[in-house]
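Subject: complex prediction, re-run

Hi both,

The earlier run crashed halfway through, so I resubmitted it with identical inputs.
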Amino acid sequence: MTVDPQVNSMHARLKEARKMAGLSQGQVAKLLGLHRPSVSEIEAGNRRVSADELSQLCDIYDISPDWVLGKSPETISPDDPKLELAARELAKLKPDDLSRLLKVIAAMRSSNDTGGEKI
Amino acid sequence: MTVDPQVNSMHARLKEARKMAGLSQGQVAKLLGLHRPSVSEIEAGNRRVSADELSQLCDIYDISPDWVLGKSPETISPDDPKLELAARELAKLKPDDLSRLLKVIAAMRSSNDTGGEKI
DNA sequence: CTTACTAGGTAAGATTATATTACCACTTGT
DNA sequence: ACAAGTGGTAATATAATCTTACCTAGTAAG
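This time it finished cleanly. Structure:
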């Protein structure tokens, strides 16, 4: 998802997630029962987000609260013992997600991957 | 972490987590920069919790936002065959691919997707 | 070029929630 | 009994959000 290390604030992540979900502020506002300016101010960092709103936004955008609040590992040092970390992360996944992930892995291995493209 | 099926609301989980951490409302209030009645009302479900406050509470109680918001995924049993398969596949990845994958995992965690879409 | 439509940012007054102080009851220890 | 600690709740002053409105930029047609 975010692959951009400069997206480090919650409101920026929420904005990014909305765009990734292909939704407008107005659509999100309607889903949340808010007015559009409220969504605008939230994404500008000028308005707080309640825990309930955060929960709904995570459902809408299909992201996790951990990630929105910056509790998920965002950057991994290239020379870490990454396999063990990956194993720990895998254990946290739901079975369906793990199945999806296996497909991602397969796709990665079979691609020639000239680098640079986002997931 | 979990466990009491009757603890199904966020404020109840926050109260439970505070007690598990062995803290009083007054101590938490001081750590959060709030007054004690605010903590009391939060745990009674009469006051909203902002995302920032939620984040701080998770740090203080050593819990995850996913759990507080009821999005904690079922974990896969450590001896799940799919987990071993995934680990073997991960070992075949190039380092850069693995780094990218870890980010995907972080974003994917606990997202509720019954939609069965392809990746 | 003009019109219309969509998306998004922002201002101002009305409305609502929170902050702050205070007082209450209960418990524990002196 | 007393004091200290914990937690629930009320009243009002304060701060936040809501709601409406107006503005700009971009885009697609006429």
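Residues 24-26, 36-37, 39-41, 43-44, 46 of chain B lie near DNA strand D (CB under 10 Å from a C1').

- K.
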